[in-house]
């Protein structure tokens, strides 16, 4: 039999050796009974004529081969070969032309019928063309995105912008935009959805092209198409990124053949092979329904559903003859069989059949039409489950097929189809909503059936008791799973070789369910172990080398560095010793300085990742990570703690490549802890669960970090789109109601918009129903929550090991933060996080982790430290999570506040400052707003942003801050000096940038300000405001830092503060100044730049030191403020709108705190008025009492203050403000560069 694709198996491969060697062997049945049995199973056909039982020839196993060949030969009927049908050119088997007939980047399935777009707009055509007659092919639409399906000639040239239908001799239908294309485009057809079948018909006799959707004709799309000599049309498609379809040119029965009976498929069905397969399946059914009663010597009919292999040689040999003919059909046409028995064939004969069969089931699951009850998907999953129940088949598939090219993750995915019955249109909105909810509920129930079958498949894969035919399935799965993770971790920037994230989301949920079920089964068998509710990954997995983490970063940096710096800690805490010589060899390998050593240590299949696309694991072996291959070359031993003085007795530990590991390497044996080698003393000596489950759990955490969290965030966009279209639809309906009856033109346009919005809303609502059922359901939320708790417990256990915490991979902290973010932002409001079991306790545990580790010296990675800081900053923005921070132990709270109050120099300080501001927001002067007053009329981009949350100050953490600053004077001075330095820098940068913006705006030619420059400018302004608020909080909580001059640096801090406040006021309040002009431009990107936030922050500081302090403090503050040469009373008057009214133009509204009655209380206004009155009087008195000062008596540095300090030992002089500020950073004299040892007060001697 000729092969039509696949692998051809010769007849000689299936000869039964026993046929010739044992001519008389019939098993335990006699010759007559055997003949009756074989005649019953393989009856002569009607073509051979009837034969009575008395006269028919005796049939034995020696004759059965020839008899079966003769029966099957009757099926070799003459087929209507396509070669005999005029009008078609090309190979007998029609597939997609992946060698020359494509443009762009595409993924084509193994059968060359399924295709996925992986570039902007990719195109591909088939290998066969038609030039005469009527032809049809079908396309299963797997996604509802942008695609153009149709026909093209060989002359058509496509690119990344133009595809099928965009050139003169190509014609296409686009169900996404509901249009037809042939250079130009017009409306045509209906909108398609995932799971729909598009039929493409071409009539070359009449010159027409027609399209059908799910068997319903959409009408003639094109007529008078070009025909004649030299013109032939190929099936073709163009599709955008991530869109996918599956073609059927006739290799499988057409879905809707009765709608176009006069049209022929491009490929003739394999009629002869299908007939043979049906006949052989009939024989197999007879064997299953017939048993031999050897005592009564008769045949007995029985139920085939109860049949089991009993070891009867007669039945087994009969089955072997059937499969002798059936196996080649399975290989060449795997779709002819939906299940079978593999025990009757040798391994080398059945393996290829199994592989082809499973790939066929996979394609069928992926590309079958999605009907409302998901019947096809359930059917294929049940068939897959039935095959995987066979132990040898399961292990072969695990070793050779699953998790290569991500088939297992694909089979655990659920691809959605628009639920047209979930959005029934009714008259009342309430009825519509109820109908939608009922449809969603039905959908959820159907999906639960599919998910249960997928979990059954994974449970079969995770079976660790099937050791009868070699290594248990779980360990084969584990090694393949690790390689799957390695490939996806190593190629994160190359989407062409990654498992699609939508598959990963479904895969992780099914895997969690399967893991937890096995975990709890182990708990029931071993009551001393922990349950899955308390699951965690022990810390020794991170440093004992049993688990490969590829090139993923550790908290403490590179693994080679950790091995060298922490080798003593490993020996003391984990009883692990590393040979120094091996550390040196490992270091040389990491640095690529010793090529021979590196080549010997790396696996032979390693390949270099160059500039070309990295090949997936199903094409080549990926390179194992070197930097984190801990102990791959190191000699490891266990130290016996009872004999510390004796030389440590070394026990060699094998560290193998992933694919070489065995059950003993994972689970351990006598004297070998397997994955749990090197248990630290802090870790409890309690069984957890089977060690293989721990590594799978570790892989699940890694999987979430690789792509699952990112995909969860992407799916939220659908819900946002639904809301936007609902608002747009409602707004349009209101406009229609208000539209004057005489303006029919406007009414018509509004009605068109209404129709578009309604259709889009219905489509998105149906899609949202799928997403809520498959991604954001309560069950999926519990899975993510369980993963969060696993990470929290793992971090806590690893943290208890002290310095060994540095070995933990960074992704555990990332998953802890991201999973909490997903639960909070992605699953609400459909599922409430507050209803999760142990919610408050989990929040407190996560708060403790963030509070402790955001400044943990054991963590060195800049990215992970920034992530921890940002997570803590977001955490304190919400009342519930902020209360969780307040619930952690006081010692941890104080340590967190001490880290937040560390000087801002030489570390990322913006997020730290933001955290302190959030703790104060709601307590400051006029600082109770959620959005700035001038932005109230604009709609925020995202109302869930932390910056847009209602104020929720923490009085407890403020009290801790006050205690620390009061008790530690040096820390207080360092902290405040750093805040003042950063304020000076941020505000100066802001002023410089708005000068550039103003200059660009005033140029006569048209100029565009760089958006990045605008963003940086706005950021500097926001930083200035937040730094002022931190100063306000500090001076409110601990005023003595500035006003108690017995404290070191108090006077200097107050003078610096006054200098900066005057600078800000003068810049912002000057009439017709630069700030005013830029604010009035209202440039996009500078929305937050306004008078109110910065002036109110400055006012809050002034009120605190000039009104709310004691008498001595007020006197000192007023003296310092008024003595600053930059002080202008007009700036204070500006706050209440009391500036020079004549300088204000009529069209410009003057700023005044009185206008913000919703933001500033009456009491606060009165304090500002009292402050203004006080400063007015003080300034008058100061002006009257100030005597003229000669130029010789002024400070030679600032020329603003009188000389008041003399330096030792050089006797040079300046004012106190200048010398104190200089000594903060430099000890050399201004003038002579001598080292200053002291500063004394200086008073000018009285003149004689």
From TrEMBL:
The UniProt entry, under SUPFAM superfamilies, shows:
Concanavalin A-like lectins/glucanases, RING/U-box
Q: Which PROSITE patterns match?
A: B302_SPRY, ZF_RING_2
Q: Where is the composition biased (Basic and acidic residues)?
A: 660-670
What does the UniProt keyword field contain?
A: Cytoplasm, Metal-binding, Methylation, Phosphoprotein, Transferase, Ubl conjugation, Ubl conjugation pathway, Zinc, Zinc-finger
Residues of the B30.2/SPRY domain? 74-254
Where in this chain does the record put each RING-type domain?
Answer: 1195-1233
Enzyme Commission number(s): 2.3.2.27
Would the keyword Zinc be found if you checked this record's keyword annotation? yes
Its chief place of residence is: cytoplasm
Q: Which branch of life, at top level?
A: Eukaryota
> Where do the record's region annotations for Disordered lie?
587-606, 660-683
**Annotated metabolic or biological route of this protein:** Protein modification; protein ubiquitination
Q: Where in the cell is it found?
A: Cytoplasm
- Which reaction(s) does its UniProt entry say it catalyses? S-ubiquitinyl-[E2 ubiquitin-conjugating enzyme]-L-cysteine + [acceptor protein]-L-lysine = [E2 ubiquitin-conjugating enzyme]-L-cysteine + N(6)-ubiquitinyl-[acceptor protein]-L-lysine
Tell me which GO cellular component terms the UniProt record holds: cytoplasm
Q: Which GO biological process annotations does it have?
A: protein ubiquitination; proteolysis involved in protein catabolic process
Entry's Gene Ontology molecular function annotations: ubiquitin protein ligase activity; zinc ion binding
* Pfam families xrefs: SPRY (PF00622), TPR_RNF123 (PF25576), zf-C3HC4_3 (PF13920)
Self-association and partners: Component of the KPC complex composed of RNF123/KPC1 and UBAC1/KPC2. Interacts with UBAC1 and CDKN1B via its N-terminal domain. Interacts with RIGI (via N-terminus) and IFIH1 (via N-terminus).
What protein is this chain from? Answer: E3 ubiquitin-protein ligase RNF123
